[in-house]
Amino acid sequence: MEKYLNILNIAIYGSAVLLMLIGLYGALTKKSLIKIVLGLSILDSGVHLLMIAIGYLKDGTAPIFSPGNEDKMNIMVDPIPQALVLTAIVIGFGVTAVALSLVIRLYRHHNTLRIDEIKKLKW
Amino acid sequence: MVGSPVLFVAIPLLAAFIIPLTGMMWKNSVRVIPGLVLAFMFFLSISLMGYVNEHGTIVEVLAGWKPPIGINLVFSPFTGFLTTLMTFLGFIVWLYSYKFKRNVDFEPSMKYFMLLMLLVTGSVGIVLTGDIFNMFVFIEIVSISGYGLTSFYTRRDSAEAAFKFLFMGAIASTFLLIAIMIIYSQLGTLNIADIAEKMPMMDHKLKVLSLVFFILAIGVEAEIFPLNGWAPDVYTEAPGPIGAAFAGIVVKAAIYASVRLVYTMYDFSGAFDLFIIIGLITFIMAETTALRQDRLKRMLAYSSIGQMGLVMIAFGIGTKEGVYAALFLMFNHAIIKSLLFFSGSYLVFNKKNKYIKHVNGMGKYLPITSVLFTIGAFAIIGLPPFAGFWSKLAILTAAADNKMVVLIAVILIISILEAVYYLRVVNRIYFYDKKEKTEPKKPSLNALVAMISLGVIVLVIGFYPDLISGILDRAAADLLDKGNYIKDVLTLNK
Amino acid sequence: MIYIILTLTLLLLMIASAVYAIWQKDLLYAVIASGILSLFLSIVFLILQAPDVALTEAAIGVALTTIIFIIAIRNTVRFEDEHDKKKVKTTTK
Amino acid sequence: MKKVIVLISLGILGFYLIDIFLGIGFGVQHFTAGVKDLYLSNSKDTLKVSNVVTAIVVNFRGFDTLGEVTVLFLASTALGGILYKKRHHVGERSVLFPASRVVMSGAKLLFPSIVLLGAYVFIHGHLSPGGGFQGGTIIATGFLLMLLTYRNYSVSHNRLVYFESLAGILFVSIGLVGYFSKGSFLENVLPVGNMNELFSGGVIGIIYIAVGFKVAAELTGIIYTVLHEKD
To answer: What is the reported pTM?
Structure first.
């Protein structure tokens, strides 16, 4: 069992970091504004996975004292990262919505989504 | 006690939720209520400052849970000083822009004032909170209202500036989350005082890496050198008063956050050298770039970034004199840069690109505004009878006490550059002839009152620096007394 | 054992849809792929004993974010390299 | 060239991240003196809330949630400002695809159950997984379904504003009641009741219902604003 946990250890953290890197890569290199916002949202997903993974406890149960579960306090997974991720997901959605509305307005001005044709976004 | 720190957040949020309702009945309420709220916040902070001076730091517990379980707000001489400064500036910005967009549709003005109020609230929240994740939430509040305010003008390229800001801000917020999670995974707490107490338990490598992530994240709002790409565009494209709000309020809050981390949370001294290096690079890069600008607001933006570099240097010196100088600089910069943004936007009003050459000969047409701009320019360079002189003197003294000769030399040389580009503008105002036919816009009464009150503060502090030095002294002592902060929060002698 | 294989498969699918979302030139497909990513992510959250987060991710990540992206694409252009027709017209004139 | 620089810096970042988090470890207790146990035991004994995440989100760290709700509020405000057009004509809604009769009747059937599900989720937020954010989002997806299916289905903007504002005011007022009666903002003022009953947890349930209404109204507003964005 130890060995498998080790595999999961690498797999979960690895895929969270990989998701972040994929998202960042998309956000930094892609030309389309929508792709950039998409990259940012994938980056967010990666961070959320990372945070939940930190709170996980091997063989843990969800942090809910449902009937019959009241005395399992010692094996409950950490609820705090979950609460933080909840907040972070909602905030991330707010940022994405604002970003997309900016994209729509940029399109209205420039009739293109390519950042190399929008002068100030070249940097 | 007259009030409590939680009202700094609760009242503006209550007002923000009420405004859409009252706006349906009485349209003017959307601009009046934020002003009342900001004025209330200012008076609250003054009255709490009085209390704090007599009875010591106030630690406010939220939801009835003592730290480290609950979130707490800390109103100490240091945070109180910053809160007072920010709420005052928030009120002045509101006063200046009271008539702003009066004649256009109702909806944009509602959004403008609401976002402005929440921008100030978020910044005050960053300063008051004693919890790193709560700080993240407030940083997001500040950022989103910042995006909204930057893209306020629909006719200009403001959406581009806002998108750039959003791009940096979104990446920064993920870095901030990573840093918070590293700390949480090691220490199991999110409370700043608790973290500070447990910090020696943490692995050294993780400590350094989490600090790096923190600095990368907060550096975006604090306009640290490689991360400040958004700042000049945002200052240029946002409405004039918002430039002042960014320079005076948001950046101050971000600097506070980084200072709180390095001074209170982390316990290794290498961070101070990091501050000096970052500050020096930011200072030199920004001031030399400012010299080459041909747009007024862009020049002011780079100058603002440069001043923030200077503040970082002063904090990096690490002694009490250094902190004193840094706080004095922050105070002066907030007041003077707002004055410059306010008067500067009237000098180039109605001009499309707002080039520096548009100020030519404005001395005759807008005498009061021009005089105020000149006062601001002289003050920020550090000419003797104005407020800026004392802060520059303080930082040079602090550096001299620590025998940092190179630092003194660099600051003096760069200050000359600063003088060159500001005096160039002043020269144009008074000794050039106006070329364009367009009539300059006369400032409205409320804007004039706002600018004159700032100008008076600059003059009064210039002649009587002792008026403020007591407050700054206490604030500096408070920041350096890390043990006291931890004790205040964790033992809670309310 | 099955549990581990399931988790690994989900993670793999997640990465694959992320790569697809970034690689695909057709923005609509890319956005759908990122919605699928969120779906897998929410199942992974469930496996990691975070039902609250899973529910939020399913509602916000899968439904709302995807739809708001689709609306944005609808209002702009569908392909990454595409120029708007209006613009092409003005350049040819 | 740019891609190479980006890849190199991403490689460095990835290396450090992997290094950090593999060092931290997965599935183990990372710290000894953390606040986790305090949260769990206080949630069970003092607040009598079974869903600890809800207890944290609404009570222990309720201030964060207030900020979070504000972020959504700000996002919808900023969105309206960004997409604002001078002549306030409500443009034709962009229809993603023409809905068939099956979809139309299906949506009509599904809509009430979706709203009911959302309401269930946020009313039982302190007992089972879910809560104001999840329930609110589910309700918003219900409205989204109707908006997408029916061309002329519209949501009264004023009504959304009423819901949003009143729910927000309720949230802050509950906080202020706690502040004025017990001396601490958002402090619980109601009896906590028994574990695993609907009326348990004191103000937590009420706050989460307010959050649910607010989130539903805000998200519907955001979708509505963006949907009507067509030149």
So the answer is: 0.94
